[in-house]
Amino acid sequence: MLENLIKEAKEELKNWAQGEVAEYEVVPDDVGHQIFEIADSSTPVYDSDMMQCANEDYSLMHEVPECRGEEGTPMRLLQLNIFDRIEQGLREYWQELESELEEDLEILESAKDAVTDAFDDPDLDPLEVLEGLEDVPEYLWGLASAHYDELEKE
Asked: Maximum distance among all alpha carbons in the chain?
């Protein structure tokens, strides 16, 4: 169960980050708050779910939570350990995801340059160049298309 929680949290982080990149055309640099929010919302609140995580990984019952700020019940400490694992998984994943997003932006910039060059070269059809851009990630395709539309209006 814990592996699924981490997997789903990573997907949520990726979706959020891609949305930020698509909106602002930069990789977010302050993601700590978002990671915390995703880890918090991904942490189980029901004892049965927490116990299922503990049954799959007994170390969750024996570790001292990093975010421990209070004496708590065993279930609360288990919940904090689950939160810590999810947050740690997200922080590790962010390092990988951040590089991917930067690469995606480089691909987008190359695509924009190719479309711009096509408008400047009478031997090229800008629409064909745009349609031939296979490397542009799907979530950034709208930005490449908007660049074409902007150049077409000029």
From this structure: 73
